[in-house]
Amino acid sequence: MADTLEFNEIYQEVKGSMNDGRLRLSRQGVIFKNSKTGKVDNIQASELAEGVWRRVALGHGLKLLTKNGHIYKYDGFRESEFDKLSDFFKAHYRLELAEKDLCVKGWNWGTVRFGGQLLSFDIGEQPVFEIPLSNVSQCTTGKNEVTLEFHQNDDAEVSLMEVRFYVPPTQEDGVDPVEAFAQNVLSKADVIQATGDAICIFRELQCLTPRGRYDIRIYPTFLHLHGKTFDYKIPYTTVLRLFLLPHKDQRQMFFVISLDPPIKQGQTRYHFLILLFSKDEDISLTLNMNEEEVEKRFEGRLTKNMSGSLYEMVSRVMKALVNRKITVPGNFQGHSGAQCITCSYKASSGLLYPLERGFIYVHKPPVHIRFDEISFVNFARGTTTTRSFDFEIETKQGTQYTFSSIEREEYGKLFDFVNAKKLNIKNRGLKEGMKQSYDEYADSDEDQHDAYLERMKEEGKIREENANDSSDGSGEETDESFNPGEEDDDVAEEFDSNASASSSSGDGDSDRDEKKPAKKAKIVKERKPRKKQVESKKGKDPNAPKRPMSAYMLWLNANREKIKSDHPGISITDLSKKAGELWKAMSKEKKEASGEWDRKAEDARRDYEKAMKEYSVGGKSESSKAERSKKKKKKQEKQTKGKAEKKGAASKSLSSTKSPAKSMSESFKSKEFVSSDESSSGESKKE
Q1: 485: which DSSP letter?
Q2: Where is the DNA-binding region (predicted)?
Q3: What pLDDT, on the 0 to 100 scale, is given for residue 166?
Q4: Handedness of CA 422, 426, 430, 433 (dihedral sign)
Q5: Is 85 helix (H, G, I), strand (E, B) or coil?
Q6: CA angle at 370 for the pair 366 and 372, rounded to the nearest 5°
Q7: Consecutive H or E run containing 29
Q8: H-state helical runs in 192-309
């Protein structure tokens, strides 16, 4: 028997939505990787308590129950796969894969059973439906009635939002069946209740999405964002990934929290929570727990009293509570030395960070693309200018992301990075050795070492070294300052001469004028007028006989209507293509046997040759005489027109010489006053 079983296109039911992915069963346990989010669920073989096989809407399904009460449902199996799965469970997990069918009687009364995190409504021994209590967002009670409300599923067109149960009264004293029902639900439901004090509070943090300033209250099981207008409660179970990204200016830090499902505000969905910090901002933090509780709960990852940079404290607390690694940029360095690339996505400008296992763009809208979901990338020429290029990414699902307006200098660095990660580049093809070596069931966040921890250690060493130095010199070596004088070289490149000479102080205006380089006058080459080609080309005589048609054209004219009737609605271009195909398909023997179209073409050629002989003898000479007479007439008209223009110019010069006194007196008049020769002559007549 094989040690592993693999299934593609399996659907996992999570919070009412069916997420597709890949399922692998091995000796060690069960692994499911979500195709959409890249999240990996790993169930150890020792944790499995029960396996159930049943018929569901998507074929057949597998329900797994663990010893700690968790339930996992996978649908999309074929009926023929039952024997293979049953044998595998017996051999490796020592479990019987039980077959249980759902009740389809349609009754609406029965018995409710609570088992682990599942509410099961049964009729007799058969279940009718099951509700995972983690899907419940609220539970309210009334007289003999319990109402369950559910989280909204954004991926489904129609979502179940509410179910009501009628609980009949019982004769038992001291126990209210309605309250007992509600308590069983609330003990396992995903109902966020801000009971007790927060572990710590961060005040007035700048948030980019959702935009505004929020107080962040850290509770044991959820995160509470409290703003002036909106409040958000985010369970730690919905946090997928954590990112800590340095801004390009090296003075700010982004802390990004990826969420699934996203937080909602009306119709807006926020899949990412992005906080912006200044590196200079420090904080002293005291956890609202005693030292024993902190040690027991966080096992040395946090202490009761901590101090340091604000971004470091927030990321450290979040890492300990969510229990996920923080992703930071890897070895990539752009042209400017930063670990990101300035670009535009859709209408907004932002920063693209090449990571060890994907790309992330911040901040509007935030985008995270994993390497294992990329089909290919493409480097395209910029649409507006040649000084920039576009970077396109297409996923295996067909979604395309275009990051535009990237500086040309970044091309080499980005191309080398894509090559090193063995991503498929469009127009180059997937070459040998370029195949991605990613484990299809590995978490996209797993890494051999914790890059965030290494960075924190390095920063701690630098901080200790700076503390030993004098207070005056501290921070000057690591912090880069903006020096405007250093950019003079860039300005000098624009003029192809020494531009620094113009910036010298203490010289007069005349000196500056002398030192300025004289601009060379542009030499505009005179374009020679093109010779008229009309005269060189011989005009086509309408009386000349027309050329004869070929055998194919004669056949096409005869069969055109037939092709149209066989292919109704065919266009002219398609008709000609079809005719060409039919003509080619006709064999040489068939064409020679019929000989009809060749004979017709030969007759047409003889008639044309005969007509051409007659035309060259008589008609052509007459037409040439007519053309010559036309040319003579045009020449005479041009000559007479030129003589008339010369006479007009001479008469004007005579009239101007006759009255020199008037012309001298009126010569000072402006162009606005004397608009033309006619107006000035008109005024002189009036005087």
Answers
A1: G
A2: 545-616
A3: 92
A4: negative
A5: helix
A6: 160
A7: strand 29-34
A8: 291-298
CATH code for position 396: 2.30.29.30
Tokens 């040759």, residue located: 609
Question: What is the distance between the alpha carbons of residues 281 and 515, in angstroms, rounded to a whole number?
Answer: 49
CATH of the domain at 166: 2.30.29.220
207 and 170 in a single domain? The answer is no
Phi, psi of 395 (to 5 degrees): -90, 170
Residues 571-622 pLDDT 10s? 888 888 888 888 887 766 666 666 777 888 888 888 888 888 877 766 555 5
Please state, as a whole number, how many other Cβ atoms lie within 10 Å of the Cβ of residue 473: 9
255 and 308 in a single domain? The answer is: yes
What is the model's pLDDT at position 432?
A: 43
Task: Answer with the residue of higher pLDDT: 246 or 480.
Answer: 246
Residue with tokens 């169930």: 43
Measured CA to CA in angstroms, residue 378 lies from 367, 393, 402, 411 at distances of 18, 7, 9, 12
Question: Alpha helix (H) ranges present in 27-78?
Answer: none
Q: Which of 475-489, 536-550, 572-586 has the highest mean pLDDT?
A: 572-586
pLDDT digits (tens, 9 = 90+) for 433-472: 444 555 555 555 544 445 556 666 666 666 666 655 544 4
CA 495 to each of CA 76, 491, 512, 519: distance values in angstroms, whole numbers, following the listed order: 69, 8, 16, 10
Distance CA 102, CA 125 (A): 10
Q: Evaluate whether residue 93 is within a structural domain.
A: yes
145-150 and 111-115 as β-strands: parallel, antiparallel, unpaired?
unpaired
Reduce the DSSP state of residue 169 to 3 states and report it.
Answer: coil
How many domains is the chain built from?
A: 4
What is the overall mean pLDDT for the chain? Answer: 75
**Distance, CA of 97 to CA of 53 (rounded, Å):** 6
- pLDDT given at position 221: 84
Strand 97-99 with 118-123, pairing: unpaired
Residue 602 has a pLDDT of 85
Any domain includes 251: yes
What is the domain extent for residue 127?
111-187
pTM (2 decimals)?
Answer: 0.54
Is residue 393 pLDDT above 90, yes or no? yes
Residues with Cβ within 8 Å of 53's Cβ and at least 6 positions away in sequence, in order, are 60, 61, 62, 82, 85, 86, 97, 98, 99, 100
Percent of the chain whose predicted confidence (pLDDT) is above 90: 13
Q: Exposed, middle or buried: residue 559 (CB in 10 Å: 0-12, 13-18, 19+)?
A: middle
Span 242-251, average pLDDT: 91
User: Band of the pLDDT at 249, cuts 50, 70, 90?
Assistant: confident
